[in-house]
Design brief:
Length: about 200
């Protein structure tokens, strides 16, 4: 398969590239690094990405920024960070990707454990992740008649990221990026659609 991987140089993206790159061709894309560059917050950038890749068999996103901060001090502009980047960025990618997939192709997005298990200062992230999972459930129903699939992987906080995020995740048992990458393998090589694949 020819797989377009956005966020390929991040901690999670690198693990996904290693896992799937053993059997498939990986087209690595990122905002500031990778063989292909793309800004998921920009329609033209996403269109240019697919103009360069042509038809692919799978599209994976392992990227997206959200705002962390206390609700009491949050303003709409801060909340909008996650809406425009992680939520709409991945939705924008999926909307474009559906027109550039081969028969039987798939789209895999990324949410996170706090869609179901909120944390302090994580209101924006919880809302964004839950919205992504809702989008995938509904989109799968419309993609099914066209022979296309869409799923979302919801990883726990990563072992490799705990140095930065430990204060936000007290009592959580982190997972390795390599274990999280198995969820993306299931999404790409499996048969399910409309699923939230949890790696907790």
């Amino acid at each position: 398969m020819k797989i377009l991987l956005i966020g390929a140089n991040g901690t999670l993206g690198q693990a996904v590239a290693r896992q799937l790159g053993q059997r498939h061709q990986i087209l690595a894309a990122g905002r500031r690094s990778g063989e292909l560059r793309v800004d998921l917050t920009d329609d033209a950038s996403v269109a240019e990405l697919f103009a360069r890749t042509g038809t692919v068999d799978a599209v994976i996103s392992t990227t997206g920024a959200v705002h962390f901060g206390p609700l009491q001090q949050m303003n709409p502009a801060q909340f909008n960070t996650g809406l425009q980047d992680k939520l709409l960025g991945q939705v924008r990618l999926a909307l474009a990707a559906q027109h550039h997939l081969s028969a039987g192709g798939s789209i895999t997005l990324t949410s996170g454990i706090i869609s179901a298990q909120p944390i302090r200062d994580g209101v924006n992230a919880t809302a964004v992740n839950a919205a992504l999972e809702g989008f995938v459930r509904a989109a799968a129903l419309e993609l099914l008649p066209r022979g296309l699939r869409i799923n979302v992987v919801s990883p726990n906080v990563l072992v490799e990221s705990m140095a930065a995020y430990a204060p936000y995740f007290p009592g959580f048992e982190p997972v390795s990026a390599q274990r999280a990458a198995l969820g993306y393998q299931r999404a790409v090589e499996g048969i399910q659609s409309g699923e939230t694949i949890t790696v907790w």
